[in-house]
Automatic annotation (TrEMBL):
The gene is NIP1. Transmembrane segments: none annotated. Pfam families: eIF-3c_N, EIF3CL_C, PCI. Residues 37-46, 186-196 have a biased composition (Polar residues). Component of the eukaryotic translation initiation factor 3 (eIF-3) complex, which is involved in protein synthesis of a specialized repertoire of mRNAs and, together with other initiation factors, stimulates binding of mRNA and methionyl-tRNAi to the 40S ribosome. The eIF-3 complex specifically targets and initiates translation of a subset of mRNAs involved in cell proliferation. It comes from Serendipita vermifera MAFF 305830. InterPro entries: EIF3C (IPR027516), EIF3C_N_dom (IPR008905), EIF3CL_C (IPR058999), PCI_dom (IPR000717), WH_DNA-bd_sf (IPR036390). One of its GO terms (biological process) is formation of cytoplasmic translation initiation complex. The keyword Cytoplasm applies. Residues 102-111, 829-841 have a biased composition (Basic and acidic residues). One of its GO terms (cellular component) is eukaryotic 48S preinitiation complex. This is Eukaryotic translation initiation factor 3 subunit C.
Amino acid sequence: MSRFFKTAADTDSSSEESDEELLSSGDDTPAKPAAVQQKTPMSQFLKTAGDSSSSSSSSDSDSDDSDSDDSDDKPAAVQKPRPSTFLVGGGGGRDDDDSSEDERKVVKSAKDKRIEEMQAIGKSIDNALRIGDWVATSNDFDKLARLVERQTNVSEPVPPYWLRALVTVENALTATKEKDPKKKVNASNSRAQNGMKQKVKKATKEHEALLKTYNEDPEKFERDYIQALAPPPVAPREVRPAQPAGAAAAGQAGETDEFTTVGRGGKGVQHTVETLFKDLAQVNENRGKKNTDRVEQVRTLEKLLTVAVTTYQRIRVLLALISARFDYNPAASHMPNDAWLAAQKELDQLVKILIHEPTYSVEEEVNFEYDELLERSPTTEEGGIVRIRGSVISFVDRLDDEFTRSLQNIDPHGTEYIERLRDEKVLYKTICLSQSYFERASRDEALARVLMRRLEHIYYKPDAVVEALEQIPDIDETTRPSLSLQTCEKAQSLVHSICISLYKTSNSLLRTRAMLCHIYSHALHNDFYTARDMMLMSHLQENVHSADVGTQILFNRTVVQLGLCAFRCGLIKESQSTLQDIFATQRVKELLAQGLHQQRYSTLTPEQEKAERIRQMPFHMHINTELAEAVFLVASMLVEIPLLASLDTEEARRKAVSKSFRRLLDHANRQVFNGPPENTRDHIMQASKALQDGEWQRARDLIQSIAIWNLMPESKQVKEMLAKRIQEEGLRTYLFTNAPYYTTLSLELLSRIFSLSLRSVTSIVSKMIWNEELAASLDQAGGVVVFHRVEPNKLQQLALSLSEKVAQLVEQNEKALDVKLGGGSGWTDRGDGKGGDKRGGEATGGGGERRGARTGTRGGVRGRGRGARFAQGLGGQIGGAQAVRT
């Protein structure tokens, strides 16, 4: 006990005596006296940390009681003992562990503490993501963000640990989207996950440039960060200071641009020109194997690309590198944007090399085997052309498909979708470069495929957007394709030229899709008659049911656009009959690939639902279904309301041209109280009822107040056209309804009631009389319409009823025959006569031949449905007999 409380004087004296004796003694010096030996343990105890504890233990046994007594007599010296010079750091009487802790505390700076804390938080985030704990992830993410903000305030660079955490959390969020959405998730965990999406999105946008640099080479970014934090050397030494790993020593003589990669076991792997083909073969061999690091493979290929010297080497490495880019994580829904952009740039580089080096050719089928470990050049090849196994068109197809898939999985109502859509311009540039290469290489099949890809990007766009897309600054005269906006001058002419080129190909599927795109383009530019004639002459509606699903979706989109075009041109009947087949199915979104149809009694399997989602069109290609529905219902209103007024019997009223419109109208008529209209359907139904009652002004106001018309091009002209058509159909409805109650009716009165010119009223009435829709005659001298009241006798009523029943039997027989022969029983070739407009003519289908049977031969000939032949026969004769009697 006295040994621990010796005074400073005792310690010094004992130390001096022990030192003198040690200096004076030699190897053969006899043992020290006991008095001297009793003083030495103190000096042994106060040795440095390197000494063993054996000496201190032995000194305990040899200490006497006199020392302890002396120490007890001096309590004042215990308070402030002088540190011994033998202690490391002058720590006084503290032990070795305390001194080592003080030493570590002195060495560790605030900067090092922050780095260690950030590393610890990064590990905690990884552990929380591994178990799916988003609450802990959010808390740790906030801590890390605060540390980074504190470090930024002291003018230090952004640490790589923060960027690594951003990338890790973003990948985890992406992988979570692909999991089963029906799986129950904790509410707090779900809220934390949604909050993390916003935090990561905000941080990613803030550090976008740094993230791009970090993703290119994380190891180099971390080395640069460590080098930036390292203090400058105090003074130069003879020993050369170690440079950061991977730093290029450009000023050293004799060194090359080669670099060293550390492989397994710490052995260095050098990539040189001599070992390029061997390393490339090894990467290709490991591709697709289990536990293969895809990121490391991409990095190796990037390094090989910088090593490649000859054209052949660059082409071989680029082919392998682009393929490796597409080997992304299969659990992800789409390819990451940075990897996609890198693949696009490398594909552009490959295509430019092939354009400027015509002696090198990349072909899918190479008829001879060649050694992939040997260098090849045009001088050693047969014909002077180096043929390399590969496929450029498959890269273009995959790049385009990945771009579409990314748009399908991005929220279309956010800014991310717009930012991603901007990449379409660089993709379009790649497609144009590929087209230029295939034209120079005379690859007809690949050229047709890439032309189809180019057409699918422009056929649905307005002219202004196509012109902006065609302005590609990186394409010069040597790489510009033959078909461009500079040669065609107009966007519609460019689409026409591309379609003409595709019509010459031998691939029937490409020809069909090109025809549909061409029709869509004409309909988009309000050229209805050209689009309709192309549709009828190509007979696409007859064999489209045998095409693939993508082509059927394109056909449905073309039909809807054709109906919208007819409506914009004021062709109401053509618009109604064209849109009838689509809207009669009640599955508009599913037919247009703009959403999934929720069926009540059937559920889709996960595989079927996944396949349906893959077929969905990107949001910017959607056709506004609400606008299309408004067009269809308004056109049905203008066709159905006069027809309902012209029918006499209740049985005839039940046979409608548009069953879907008639169902909505019947539901509206059954309502006891009708409030103000709230949506598009309410506006149209109340306008229909007003038109039936002769209130055409109210019907016009209700139709023009629909806000959806503002989304249609030239909305002002469309509203004016609708107002005029409502006036005309209101006049027709008024004449059909009130004809039994009038003997004569003044044309001038009709002109004032419906705000039409006298010439327009005379024209409409004359046309109705000529078409035998109105049993009347026109007295032009008196300016009146003279009505003829003629009621069919009993025999004629029975004959008409018989003709209707026979017409139904004929239709049923033809339907049964089609089913037996496997003919078009789908909605694209309906058996009830409603597809009559597609076969030529302007009839309204089955309703056309039924009206023909009632009003005479003229009305019967107008029917071009399946019952048209019968309308020209028995029904036409009966109707003709009635017309003669009238």
